[in-house]
UniProtKB/TrEMBL annotation, chain A:
It comes from the Bacteria. Pfam families: DHODB_Fe-S_bind (PF10418), NAD_binding_1 (PF00175). This is NAD(P)H-flavin reductase. Keywords: 2Fe-2S, Iron, Iron-sulfur, Metal-binding. One of its GO terms (molecular function) is flavin adenine dinucleotide binding. SUPFAM superfamilies: Ferredoxin reductase-like, C-terminal NADP-linked domain, Riboflavin synthase domain-like. It comes from Thiohalophilus thiocyanatoxydans. Binds 1 [2Fe-2S] cluster per subunit. One of its GO terms (biological process) is pyrimidine nucleotide biosynthetic process. The keyword Signal does not apply. InterPro entries: Cyt_c3_hydrogenase_gsu, Dihydroorotate_DH_Fe-S-bd, FAD-bd_FR_type, FNR_nucleotide-bd, OxRdtase_FAD/NAD-bd, PyrK_electron_transfer, Riboflavin_synthase-like_b-brl. Residues 5-105 form the FAD-binding FR-type domain.
UniProtKB/TrEMBL annotation, chain B:
GO terms for molecular function: iron-sulfur cluster binding; metal ion binding. InterPro entries: 4Fe4S_Fe-S-bd, 4Fe4S_Fe_S_CS, Helical_ferredxn. PROSITE patterns: 4FE4S_FER_1 (PS00198), 4FE4S_FER_2 (PS51379). The keyword Metal-binding applies. This is 4Fe-4S dicluster protein. Residues 250-281, 331-359 form the 4Fe-4S ferredoxin-type domain. It comes from Thiohalophilus thiocyanatoxydans.
Amino acid sequence: MSSPYLPHEAEIFQRLEETPHIFTLRLRFTDPDIHAQYHFEPGQFNMLYVYGVGEVPISIVSDPQDEHAYDHTIRRLGRVTNVLAGLQEGDRIGVRGAYGRGWPVQQAEGKDVVLITGGLGCAPVVSVINYVLKRRDRFRRLIIMQGVKHSDDLIWREKYETWSKQNDTQVVLAASQGGAGWPWATGHITELVSEIDFDPQNCTVMMCGPEGMMIAAMKELLPRQVPESAIWLSMERNMQCAVGHCGHCQHGPNFVCKDGPVFNYPEIKPLLGIKGF
Amino acid sequence: MGEKDAYLLRERLPLLLEAVQAEGYECIGPQWQNEAIVYDILNQVEQLPHGVQVNQYPGEYCGEIHEGNVRCFAWANGPQALKPFLFAPRETLWRVHRDNDGRLQFESATPEAPKRAIFGVRACDLAALALQDRHFLESDFPDPAYAARRENLLLIAVNCSHPASTCFCASTGDGPVAQAGYDLVLDELDDGFMIQAGTEEGQAIMARLNLIPVTDGHREAIEIQQEKAHEQLRQVPGKQLRDALFANLDHERWDDVAGRCLSCGNCTSVCPTCFCHSEEELAPLDGGSSEHIRQWDSCFTAGHSYIHGLTIRQQTRERYRQWLTHKFGSWHDQYGRSGCVGCGRCIAWCPVGIDVTEELQAICGSDDA
């Protein structure tokens, strides 16, 4: 029986500095066979291991059909990500994955795709944006909403500008505190849900970010007659094993690592927003 | 059960141990050590807890040795279940070596999994084992260490004749009589044991013992003993409490129990079904290698629910509620039944004597569906 816990060696093929606190690692497995076999769905995550420090779950931001590398955009915050931040191109780490249930990209075909994200919650949905844009004729309108605390926190500014120029695409950005040269809205992104142009009866909404933000967005979406079953949320909990064994990520009956991290709203509705779950 | 039973006279009990040892098993059996029943290596039947009786109450575990009492299994349980023998309290999952160029080589740790036989297994612990099997084995990612130990396990159950005051297995439906999952099962009487096999391996061992037929007198005594063992002081207010628990997340009793609970995690350590564990890195000083280990964790710790700067369950109220709503609630969704087998260990080993059956009764007693 092979161990589900064993990482494989991967090389940092490229490192991109996004902001002083956020960076992207482009990775490849050093064993070509393992790299060739590796595949993932948008919304899934990998466990990244730093030698002598430990593992951390990080979502994958690149396109699943990019055979060259897979990318992780990471905020330096904890013990492991702080060390990850200091690694350079050519350095080796351990990677295992991909884990969990990703975004319902296939179910979203033929519909408007509404993406509402907060903070670094934008990272797990970038793969959806890329996925939709590469297969543009399969989807209807694409709405990209991203909120940040401070205008300086926004990453991928050029990407948003590029996306906003695509056909049938609406980009809405907001910062709770806008700074100088911030051309977009100031306030909570969820306050702008009423302004987006989409078909509530024929859409798939995908959200990722702080739970409070997602709950606030829900309060805007449901009155617009978006069915609950059209709303998908990516949840975050303590994950250590990533295979449903260690128990930390439980949210009521769900193991976020294997039943999620992406959930259909009705699946998690009973406990969403209840402190302590 | 009962189709091929036979009787092992007490003076022939060593034959059973010898027969199992002859099959190459390391034998583990209950023993009276440090004022508690513990499972340890069993080389001879004299090590069994002869004449030991244990009184268990909320927050209390107290044994007495009755000279002249020949019975070895006249107690309910000790703090251990089968759990530590399969799901190790602490073990290495893998190792990684780093060379001078920074290349990493990962290797799985080979679990220690000797052929092991455990004597004196209780019905509650067999039910708990079946639940741990579901968690660790019947998964898309079966756990190799658990699987290796499970594969090599022989289980010799003894039906419980002396439940403690803390026991409530009759109400969860898991005891006191072992229903499944054993290789051999015994019913202890003063002059010996009725023995039955649950597997072919158990039958093969039985065939090597010098057994006699079970008499009507034995059967009658065992029937009375089993009936008496069913009469338990405590009970859960129902087998399916999920809806009642989740309908009462704001019940004032959560505050009340949080005022008593020390959040120490003893209940989760002694619980035979609790599976939570944390992973940690052990980096030796030589700098050339590192070990990735796991060890038992508890939902009563702050670290259990920690995500980057945020602790989801900061308060004891939230941790106790997580434990109880999981054990008696969401286990039904995850594994098709309650996660409690009625062993009562969490009651006896709670330093402040919190009684889970009492808390359940207070929170959802009248709401049982």
